[in-house]
Amino acid sequence: MARLPKPSELGLDHALPKKGWMDTSVDFRSGTWSHPARAKNLEAVGFLNGREWSPANHDWKLPANWKRIVFEGIRERLEKFRSLRIFMDVCVRCGACADKCHFYLGSGDPKNMPVLRSELLRSIYRGEFTLAGKIMGRLAGARKLTESVVKEWFYYFFQCTECRRCSVFCPFGIDTAEITMIARELLNLLGLNIDWIAGSVANCYHTGNHLGIQPHAFKDMIDFFVDEIEAVSGVRIEPSFNRKGAEVLFITPSGDVFADPGTYTMMGYLMLFHEIGLDYTLSTYASEGGNFGMFTSHEMMKRLNSKMYAEARRLGVKWMLGGECGHMWRAVNQYMDTMNGPADFLEVPKSPVTGTVFENASSTKMVHIVEFTADLIKNGKLKLHSGRNNNLVMTYHDSCNTSRGMGFFEEPRYVIKSVCNNFYEMPRETIREQTFCCGSGSGLNNDEFIEMRMRGGLPRANAVRFVQERHGVNALSCICAIDRSALTTLMDYWVPGVSVYGVHELVGNALVMQGETERKTDLRGEPLPGTEAVEDEDI
Amino acid sequence: MNFIISLMAVLALVVAAFLGIEAAGLSRVFGVAIPYAAFILLISGVVYRVLNWASSPVPFRIPTTAGQQKTLPWIKRDRFDNPCNKIEVLGRFIMEVLFFRSLFRNTRAEVDKGPTLYYQWEKWLWLGGLALHYSLLVIILRHLRFFAEPVPSFVPVLGGMDGFLQVGLPGIYVSDAVFMIAVTYLLLRRLIIPRIRYISIPADYLPLSLILAIGVTGILLRYFTRVDLLKVKQLAIGLINFQCVVPEGIGTLFYIHLFLVCTLIAYFPFSKLIHAGGIFFSPTMNLPNDSRMRRHVNPWDYPVEVQTYVEYEERFREKMIEAGLPVAKDIAAGGPAIYSLTKK
Ligand code: SF4
Ligand code: SF4
After folding, report:
1. Is the Cβ pair B315, A14 closer than 8 Å?
2. pTM of this prediction?
């Protein structure tokens, strides 16, 4: 793991280099790039040009015909994606997006301004694909494709978390996330991927989830949660796996099953389902909600996403419910039906408890767990004791994907406020559609990238520190598995004393279950507020 | 440096027009041939660009959502920033095209020691952009009086409203003043703010320098040299009726102005100025966020290789049985899939 300087030593300088951006080249400093994809992980899913190489070396061992591959790749994508054509043509370099990117704010590197990030590709488009660019060259902002351009692409397109914050401020809606997605496709054609993504993709494809957890281990983990839940609440629940004929197939990111603090969120889901008597099943085949293909290529996104509908069809469920995840929901909301639908073998989702028909999911047939729970609470179907979360002074982090790729703002707030009594918002410029990324999204949540992650997470951390100082906030909730893991590291680094919670962990804590014994601890095994005092007296 | 290049280019255009008229007496070229050529380039260029954009499909529904999605009926949704049907998309468009909604969101980030970030009020870009585009619109509409006979009734009304600031004769148009201020601001902004200067290329300064020069020559024509408007109108009407008359003695300054305008419109489709049209095609802006409700079809969708459940079970069957997970094929029986459930 790269050495990470202390926050006070990190240094942040927004001074601009003397030389123009076309004349500066990348410095592959440790902590700011991710390990390259290993050949076996690329080959596992049929990607070409896998090899052993390192960004730190001068020679990247590009395939002999690499230029042709890139040109063909760009041409094909210009013909397939109107978004690319428009975004290559209409930027006026007004600079509205420039200081909106968390990586620029946290690193001061001008090529992390969204406008320059996309100019990295746009300049090649102009120089190689437009008449004006070919004739006028630099005067028109054009340049030729060289190896150092490819190195720049690798560095900066794997320094974009595809968060779309820039897009919200752009007068033409130019979405640098879309440009990054397409640029990563081009890099992938040359075998230039990062291993944290390529390894996850290979695992998702072959074992169903990004950690490569095999079916029996997946079940073991859930069994462990069942014991934990019994220990906390005295209620024994019985989840089922790969069960045909269940009404609902529940899919959540595998991080909820294997990584703290997501595991507590998972317990929250299971408790809720038990309490309302939901007829649901989990799947070991479709055991990953997150879609790591999205960080590689549209085709890979489709290949991984296919498992969701395939499993729903095989098991004969009526509809699907999805857990708390960011990019999974971007994929479900904006891509799934188009890629792998139509889901005409499913029914329009209807809550068996409240009878609410989820018309908004009438085509994909997949409901977000938070809207499902919000509906339960609104209809008074849950008995909640919010005082059990009284030790938490809560704020809420909007995940990029559910915010700007979906528009999912009110439901989580409604649920949180129903189960937590102390809630404070972070400043307006840092939440909702303007939310700041955790700094580790889109497959960049790896150890060797740590310095850049902490830099990218700075704007988010700053906003948390603001409410910590002003309101004594000690808890940060979110509805994304990557957030749960990434924000934990980020808080420890920048804002010690703030813990990270999934929304359904809070629900699990507050949920009063039938037949439960008096709870002494929350799901983390920490004493419930009010009970610490009693313990003290005992001593 | 980038600015100097663009300034030199504009100066070269001015000199070319000056010499063309004064030295070579090419008033027919500058008064007739070039305007036609520019107009043809404008139209064909725009058509080409639009067809080119339209030729690429929109495979996925990827609107940028900036407000609450339509979900449960009791949750208040945001129709403008997260439209869920075509009418609402129209609303988003109107907000964007007429009021520059996204630019209005703009803030400026400042870094202090700590490091601590602050986000400050910054609406100048929005204001400058809006001022430029609206004053330009008014100026273009005012120019209609040269091209139409009879003059459409709204033009004098507009001119009257625009010219309420009666400072001497002829009255100063508010739009002229706003236009000059806005262009100057946008230019200075590019030159002075280091970050914006860093991202600017010559192709960003050229249009600004060009319209600044057009503004200056226009103002000189109207307020100082008092160009003979009847002759200008004669030329303009001739151009649109294809009966070209080139009246004597309009003056070289007028031809310079006209030449710069022609350059601008000819340059329009081949430069970033085309952003005016691009906005209507932007898939993050012009699509409703309704893909959970209505299926969006990708015209080039193709089948892909996937790992099927059968392949998955082949690989893990023994472990699954051992763990008590249901499998589709019973290996003990060795036969075809009979869906034995080992548990529940
Ligand atoms: S806000 Fe949009 S138009 Fe302005 S510089 Fe950024 S991408 Fe270009
Ligand atoms: S999508 Fe996010 S990370 Fe990427 S350039 Fe835009 S603001 Fe930065």
Report:
1. no
2. 0.94
